[in-house]
Structures are given as structure tokens and as C-alpha cells.
């Protein structure tokens, strides 16, 4: 096996691990135990490269990126690690000779789900690209005891089950107690004069010890191993039994509780701010620990803290890590003794901020009383940042009090985190061109006008190594056979496939692979849902978090409409279609959960109606997650990207589908715009309002869904079925809430705020175009192949190179290993 282990050595390592870990022979071992044994064998190989990488970083004294994120949705790592050390063939054979199947062994790994959706998965793709490109970087996050919940569907309803990913020891993590730091909460700040200077003393606080665990992040066959550092909390128990009477027992118990609760669970909200105190604790906990560590590391080699930004950059993944700004200020002021101006200059050259959403309900605004009680010293610093910023607004716009109200960090008894992130950063970026333009022209217009130089776009990307090389082996091999394997580390090379667009044999092979992947997904669906689906039908797939703006509701209403047509209209026919959904709803998001129930209720009726000859099947895949996503993307014909225009900042699922040859059915939203630009508008199915139209309706009104309801009998029929028990005979009123939301104004005075009825007909027409297009097999194959051939731009390698060029300014490092 590559340079260091032969197949037989690898076999020996697995057998020896089984022996030392479980006191068993390989013949007695379970697949779970083999998973552990293989993982430790792989880890053994990784360790040397891990050490070598960090030695090289030390030696070259490189600038380091700290990617700060509450979420890293890394998914299973064994398979990717084996690919990245270049040993997939050897390991597969070694295991097979020992009587085990690599895929089955991989299946035993828990999916580390330390993230919700887009933002967390993006962070994971970025780490993959950073390591592959050889850039020095740490991911900084939280070691949640429970990650994203597992979803069970019971009687059509979502049920949340805790995700115990640490039930068995996770073989790839390494505890690093030598880098533990104390993090303080609550208490009060006393000011003392010392040598004529104010000294701020934090007292009566509660504290925990933050202890890091490192996960190796492997570059592709380049010996680079970066670290994802996730922080665990432990109690600081340095009390002795004699002191119980002094109230220290109580203190110790409190600290135990604090430590346990801080890292207990990932908040399962995506795009929805809930304002929970524990969440703010989590934020400060991992940020304070990460920054303390970054500064200590810097000081090992450097004595001028004013040059921190030359060796360190902090990228804040959305506003969740924004306390980094005042925390860095605190350390520079209180611990390093800088004056305000110097500390501020360092901070604003070190911090950068990425915005991932314009949904107003996602914006973090912490109540001042909560914030100042939990983080008293940090709050003082925020006040001073705000005071100085308000002064600068007044200077820029004399006499304009409205600007102050619109832009101040502290306003209305709230800390507006996005504004603090912008003010404290040297770079502010959106995640797709349209999104960045909306930030500049609408949401953050005032900030853009005042500091245009900070704003820039970085269109998201995905790693082709997970989402093609690992997820779709058949296609990956085929692509490499046709054009060589350059695409693995340079996705733009995949455009060479365009030479095969009019090669019928190649197009047939491409579609044959798609078919085999559809058979694989069909088997997964049979096993998990007990539904038979036909791999010859069109696989039309929408997988992503469940959110009203993503409009799974539009999709299922359209399925109902098609079903009605099949039943009512003798002249109507359609190509068989399998509509596949996968989505988790936040546990407290009632309407999203009701939409899941609706999808399952519609599926029940349609799948059991033999009168439609199986023309439509509807499948809701339980527990959509990174590991089954890989199977799903590979099998898709149609990629549903149907958010209300302007609402989806970028989307990254759209890119994963494209990479695997699925054709986009979408609105002109997020990165869809750039996908269409790459494939050409004739090779995508685009529908619906533009973002400008949506924004105009939102501002000026003028849209009344009742007009559509009254005019259009087919839409009306579908909506009536939400209230007449057609799909919920046991409880006819069950979906009334959804019906009402589409027709009657909400508290904000608007109905159908995501323009579902407005876009319905245009969506239905796009589906008709798909139905027609699919029947021309040759043309469809060409179009599908063109998707894969055109996705070069959407590699996260490209995205990372742009971040490096414009924001981070890192240097590539080469790691050589002895042969
Ligand atoms: C405070 C609650 C909360 C939790 C998560 C607010 C906001 C979030 C995330 C920023 C939501 C999110 O994941 N946004 C997604 O980010 C992706 C990566 O940039 C984009 O592709 C998606 O369009 C965007 O919805």
C-alpha cells in the first residue's frame, strides 16, 4: 500500500488491531470491530504525515488560517481518508482477503454530523480543499456530544432521535489536553488603577476548561494533514474536600453542569435565530479557546503582537463566531497591554466575515441584558466599539440620525452581530454573485456605501473528491478513462469531456452509469422505505433542509396536480417519474414538519393507487445526511433547486447534482444563476419570478394569491385537497394551516410570502419541458453529460484559491515524506 504499507502489512495491521483492541481473531470479529481496526491502521499511517505537516508549518513559519465555524458537517471520513492516502485498492483487497467488504465496513462509521446543512457542509468542503491545495489551516469548532438528530419517519411524521456519534470511541480523533484553556462566564468587572492605567479585573465568574480534540484533515495524495480542532468542555475541579463548607461544593457542581451543558448538543436550527443563552455560551466558549490558542501559538515564535495579522487570519463563518472581534480586543487590551487604537488595528486586519443568508429571521441579535450578564467584559468592549463606530457614522453623515439608527451595533437593546462582524472585519463576502449583489444593494447597503472596499464575492464550491471520486466510483472511473485524472485536483480539466458531447457511444456509457446508480438508489429505497421504484423512470430529486423558502411545498403541490391530471384527464399522459424528497426540519419548526407529513400522506395515496399505472411514485428518504447524499446525487436525473428567487444565498446541493450529471430545474436564485451561465440556458429548466420581481413585490405589494386561486381551477382543486381530507382521510383539517398560509395574510399582512402560487404555472410548464426532453434519449444524454463537463467552476478548490488570493494571503506548503 502506497509508500509505506503493502497489502500484506495492512492485513497484518488489521489483525493485530483486532487482537489488541478486542482480544479476538479476525474470524471472530464483527464488522463494527473491523471498522475500528481498519481505522486505527489508517490513522497510524496518517500520524506520520500529520506530524510532518505541522513540522513544516513550524519550520517555514507560515501564515495560518483559522476557519471559525459553529458547524463542520464532515460526514464519514474512513473512505475519504483511504482514497486520500492513495490506498483504496490495497485496502479493499486486504479486507476482501480477510473476508470483509470495504463498503460494509465504511457503513459502520457514524456520520459525524456536527452541522445542520449548507453552512456546515461548506466548511467541511473548504477543509478538504485547503489540505489538498497545501494551505496551512485549522478548522475551529465544537465537539458536540450529540450532533444533528437522526430522523425517523413514523406514520408520516418526523421523529427526532439523538445522534450518539461518540457512543463508541471515534477512532480518528486525538485529545490534546496540553492545549487546554480556561473560558470565563458571568460575574462582574472591577476597574483598578495601576501605574495610572485602568486595569479590568473579572471576578465572581464561572469557568470551564476547554479541551481540544483534533481530527486529521487529509489532502489528496500530497502528505498534507491539517487539523479540525473541536473543543470539549470539562469542569475545573481544583477544590478540595475540606473546603465544602465555604460554598465551593456548590461552585464545583455548577461548573460540572456548565461544562456538561455547553457542548451537549448542536442547535438543530438552520436559518432561524432563537436567542438561547446556551447558544451564546457555545459561541464564546469555542471562540475564546480558539483565539487563546492561536495567540499562544503565535507568541511561541514572535514577540510583536502588533504584527499578528501577518501570521494569523480568522475567517468567521457567518455571524455565529462574531464574538471573536471583542474577544481578540480583550486579549490585546487586557492581556497584551495594547492601547485601543493599536488593538483595533490588529483586530480589523485579522478578522474577516462571510455572510450566508439574508433571511431576516436568521439574523443574530442578542438582547443586551443577556449578553452583558453572560460576558460582562466583552460587553464593555462592544460598547466602546459601538461608541467609536457611531462617532464615525456621524462624521460621515453629519446630522443624519436615521443612519445611526440603521447602522449602530447596539440598538433597541440588542447587539446586532452582523453589524459587529462588518465593523470588525477587513473583508465581508457573500457566497454567490447574486447574493453578494443583494447584500450590497439591499440588505447591507448602508455598510457597502460607507466601506465598499470590504465587500467581495466568493461563489461557493464543493469538493469533487467526496462528491464524485468517493460518491460515484463508476462515473469517476469513466471520466478518468476518457480524459485522465487531472480533474481530481483541477476540476476545470473536466471540460475536456465536452469532446464527447456528440459521441453517441460515450453518451450511452454515461447514461448506463446513471442507470446503474439509479439501481443502487432504488435498492437503498427498497431497503429503507420498502417502496419499489423503477430505475427507468425519471429520478426527480429535492434533498436539502426543509424550509418554507426552499419550497418543498411547491414541489409536492405540483405532484398533487399531476396526479389529478392523470386521474381526471383521459388525454393526459406523462413519462413515469419518481419524485424523491429528503429533508430534516428543525425540531421546533411546526410548518416544516407539517410539510413532511403532507409529502408522506401524498406518497401514501399515490403509491398505492394502481389506477395510475405507476406513472408517479413519491418517496421521502428518511434521515437525509452526508452518507446517503452521496448515493442520492449519483442517481439523479433532475435536480430541484426551486427556492423563491433572492432567498437562497448560494446552494451547494445544486453543484453536487450538476457534477453527477443531473439537470437543474430551478429559479434564478443563488448559484443557480452561475450554473445556468456555465451550461447555457437551453440546458437547464428555469422558471419563476426573478429576484428583482420578488423584492419589488415584497416592497410594494401587488400580489394576491386569492386571484390565482379564484381563476385557476386546477390550482384550486389542489388547494382544496389540503382541506377536504383527500390525502388525510383520518383528519381532514390536518393541512389547513398550509392552505391558510397560501391564501390568507399572516401577522405581517402578506399571504403566500414565498410566491408558491405565483410561480406555480411557470413551474408546471418547466416540468412539461422536462417530460418532453427526457423522451429524446440522445438529447438528454448530451445535456446530462454537459452538466458534468461544465461544472469546473464549482470546485471548492477554486473557491479556496479566491479566498487565498483576495483575503487570506496564505502560502502553499509542500510536505515531503521519506520513501
Ligand atoms: C442562528 C441560526 C442560524 C443557523 C444557521 C442562522 C443561519 C444559519 C446558516 C447561515 C444557514 C445556512 O446554512 N446558510 C446556507 O449557507 C450555504 C453555504 O454558504 C448556502 O449555500 C445556502 O444557500 C445558505 O442557505
Write up what this structure looks like.
- With 819 residues, the protein is an alpha/beta fold.
- The protein folds into two domains: 61-76 and 111-458, Glycogen Phosphorylase B (Rossmann fold), CATH 3.40.50; 465-801, Rossmann fold, CATH 3.40.50.2000.
- The protein contains 32 helices and 23 strands.
- Strands 1, 2, 5, 6, 9, 10, 11, 12, 16 and 17 form a ten-stranded mixed sheet that branches.
- The model has no long low-confidence stretch (mean pLDDT 96).
- The protein binds ligand 26W.
- Residues 116-119, 122, 269-273, 318, 356-357, 362, 364, 431, 460, 648-652, 670 line the site of ligand 26W.
Keywords:
ten-stranded mixed sheet; binds ligand 26W; pyridoxal phosphate; 2 domains; 819 residues
Domain module tally: 2
Radius of gyration: 27 Å
CATH architecture call of the largest domain: 3-Layer(aba) Sandwich
The CATH topology annotation of the largest domain reads as Rossmann fold
**Overall pLDDT confidence:** 96
Compact description:
Helices cover 48% and strands 14% of the residues. The chain is α/β, with parallel strands linked by helices.
Could you give the topology of this structure?
Layout (H helix, E strand, L loop, with lengths): L6 H16 L8 H30 L3 E5 L9 H7 L3 H10 L4 H5 L11 H16 L3 E6 L7 E5 L2 E5 L12 E2 L5 E5 L2 E7 L2 E7 L2 E13 L6 E11 L12 H15 L14 H25 L6 H4 E6 L6 H12 L4 H11 E4 L10 E3 H7 L1 H21 L4 H7 L2 E2 L2 E3 H8 L2 E4 L2 H11 L1 H6 L4 E3 L6 H7 L2 H11 L20 H26 L8 E6 L8 H17 L8 E6 L7 H18 L8 E5 L5 H9 L3 E4 L11 H7 L3 E4 L5 H8 L5 E2 L4 H10 L4 H7 L1 H8 L15 H8 L12 H20 L1 H13 L6 H13 L11
Parallel strand pairs: 1-2, 1-11, 2-10, 11-12, 12-16, 16-17, 18-19, 18-21, 19-20, 21-22, 22-23
Antiparallel strand pairs: 3-4, 5-9, 6-9, 7-8, 9-10, 13-15, 14-15
Bound molecules: ligand 26W.
Amino acid at each position: 500500500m502506497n509508500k509505506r504499507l503493502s497489502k500484506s502489512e495492512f492485513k497484518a495491521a488489521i489483525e493485530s488491531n483486532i487482537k489488541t483492541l478486542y482480544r479476538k481473531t479476525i474470524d471472530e470479529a464483527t464488522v463494527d470491530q473491523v471498522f475500528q481496526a481498519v481505522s486505527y491502521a489508517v490513522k497510524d499511517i496518517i500520524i506520520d504525515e500529520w506530524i510532518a505537516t505541522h513540522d513544516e508549518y513550524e519550520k517555514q513559519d507560515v501564515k495560518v488560517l483559522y476557519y471559525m465555524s459553529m458547524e463542520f458537517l464532515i460526514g464519514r471520513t474512513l473512505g475519504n481518508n483511504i482514497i486520500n492516502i492513495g490506498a483504496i485498492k490495497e485496502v479493499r483487497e486486504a479486507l476482501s482477503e480477510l473476508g470483509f467488504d470495504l463498503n460494509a465496513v465504511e457503513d459502520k462509521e457514524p456520520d459525524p454530523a456536527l452541522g445542520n446543512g449548507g453552512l456546515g457542509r461548506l466548511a467541511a468542503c473548504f477543509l478538504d480543499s485547503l489540505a489538498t491545495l497545501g494551505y496551512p489551516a485549522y478548522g475551529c469548532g465544537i465537539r458536540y456530544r450529540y450532533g444533528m438528530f437522526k430522523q425517523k419517519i413514523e406514520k408520516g411524521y418526523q421523529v427526532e432521535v439523538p445522534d450518539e456519534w461518540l457512543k463508541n470511541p471515534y477512532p480518528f480523533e486525538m485529545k490534546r489536553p496540553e492545549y487546554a484553556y480556561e473560558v470565563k462566564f458571568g460575574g462582574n468587572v472591577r476597574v483598578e488603577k495601576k501605574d495610572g492605567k485602568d486595569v479590568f479585573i473579572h471576578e465572581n465568574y464561572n469557568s470551564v476548561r476547554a479541551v481540544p480534540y483534533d481530527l486529521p484533515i487529509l489532502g489528496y495524495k500530497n502528505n498534507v494533514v491539517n487539523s479540525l480542532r473541536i473543543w470539549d468542555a470539562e469542569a475545573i475541579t481544583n477544590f478540595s474536600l475540606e473546603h465544602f463548607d465555604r460554598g465551593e461544593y456548590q461552585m464545583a457542581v455548577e461548573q460540572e453542569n456548565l461544562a456538561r451543558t455547553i457542548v451537549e448538543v448542536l442547535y438543530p436550527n438552520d436559518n432561524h435565530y432563537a436567542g438561547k443563552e446556551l447558544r451564546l455560551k457555545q459561541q464564546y466558549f469555542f471562540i475564546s479557546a480558539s483565539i487563546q490558542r492561536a495567540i499562544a501559538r503565535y507568541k511561541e515564535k514572535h514577540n510583536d503582537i502588533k504584527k499578528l495579522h501577518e501570521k494569523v487570519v480568522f475567517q468567521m463563518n457567518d455571524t455565529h463566531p462574531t464574538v471573536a472581534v471583542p474577544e481578540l480586543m480583550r486579549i490585546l487590551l487586557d492581556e497584551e497591554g495594547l492601547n485601543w487604537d493599536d488593538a483595533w488595528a490588529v483586530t480589523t486586519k485579522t478578522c474577516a466575515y462571510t455572510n450566508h443568508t439574508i433571511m431576516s429571521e436568521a439574523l443574530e441579535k442578542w438582547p443586551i441584558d443577556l449578553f452583558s450578564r453572560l460576558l460582562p467584559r466583552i460587553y464593555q468592549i462592544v460598547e466602546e466599539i459601538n461608541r467609536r463606530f457611531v462617532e464615525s457614522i456621524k462624521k460621515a453623515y453629519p446630522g443624519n440620525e436615521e443612519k445611526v439608527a440603521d447602522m449602530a451595533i447596539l440598538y433597541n437593546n440588542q447587539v446586532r452581530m452582523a453589524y459587529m462582524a462588518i465593523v470588525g472585519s477587513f473583508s465581508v463576502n457573500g457566497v454567490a454573485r447574486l447574493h453578494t449583489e443583494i447584500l450590497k444593494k439591499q440588505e447591507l447597503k448602508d455598510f457597502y456605501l460607507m466601506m465598499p472596499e470590504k465587500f467581495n464575492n466568493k461563489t461557493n464550491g464543493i469538493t469533487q473528491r467526496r462528491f464524485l471520486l468517493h460518491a460515484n466510483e463508476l462515473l469517476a472511473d469513466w471520466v478518468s478513462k476518457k480524459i485522465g485524472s487531472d480533474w481530481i485536483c483541477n476540476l476545470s480539466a473536466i471540460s475536456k469531456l465536452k469532446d464527447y458531447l456528440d459521441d453517441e457511444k460515450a453518451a450511452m456509457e454515461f447514461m448506463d452509469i446513471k442507470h446503474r446508480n439509479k439501481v443502487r438508489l432504488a435498492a437503498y429505497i427498497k431497503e429503507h422505505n420498502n417502496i419499489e421504484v423503477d430505475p427507468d423512470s425519471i429520478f426527480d430529486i429535492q434533498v436539502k433542509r426543509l424550509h418554507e423558502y426552499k419550497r418543498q411545498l411547491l414541489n409536492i403541490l405540483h405532484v398533487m396536480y399531476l396526479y389529478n391530471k392523470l386521474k381526471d384527464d383521459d388525454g393526459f399522459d406523462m413519462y413515469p417519474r419518481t419524485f424523491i424528497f429528503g429533508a430534516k426540519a428543525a425540531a421546533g419548526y411546526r410548518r416544516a414538519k407539517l410539510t413532511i407529513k403532507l409529502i408522506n400522506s401524498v406518497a401514501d395515496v399515490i403509491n398505492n393507487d394502481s389506477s395510475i399505472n405507476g406513472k408517479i411514485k413519491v418517496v421521502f428518504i428518511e434521515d437525509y445526511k452526508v452518507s446517503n447524499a452521496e448515493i442520492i446525487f449519483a442517481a439523479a436525473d433532475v435536480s430541484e433547486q426551486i427556492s423563491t428567487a433572492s432567498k437562497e444565498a448560494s446552494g451547494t446541493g445544486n453543484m453536487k447534482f450538476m457534477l453527477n450529471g443531473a439537470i437543474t430545474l430551478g429559479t434564478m436564485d443563488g448559484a443557480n444563476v452561475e450554473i445556468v451561465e456555465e451550461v447555457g440556458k437551453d440546458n437547464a429548466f428555469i422558471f419563476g419570478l426573478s429576484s428583482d420581481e420578488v423584492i419589488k413585490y415584497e416592497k410594494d405589494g401587488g400580489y394576491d394569491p386569492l386571484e390565482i386561486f379564484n381563476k385557476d381551477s386546477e390550482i384550486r382543486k389542489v388547494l382544496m385537497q389540503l382541506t377536504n381530507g383527500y390525502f388525510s382521510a383520518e383528519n381532514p383539517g390536518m393541512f389547513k394551516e398550509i392552505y391558510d398560509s397560501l391564501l390568507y395574510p399572516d401577522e405581517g399582512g402578506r399571504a403566500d410570502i414565498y410566491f408558491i402560487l405565483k410561480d406555480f404555472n411557470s413551474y408546471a410548464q418547466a416540468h412539461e419541458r422536462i417530460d418532453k426532453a427526457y423522451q429524446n434519449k440522445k438529447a438528454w444524454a448530451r445535456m446530462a453529460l454537459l452538466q458534468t463537463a461544465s461544472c469546473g467552476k464549482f470546485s471548492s478548490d477554486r473557491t479556496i484559491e479566491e479566498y487565498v488570493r483576495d483575503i487570506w494571503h496564505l502560502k502553499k506548503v509542500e510536505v515531503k515524506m521519506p520513501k
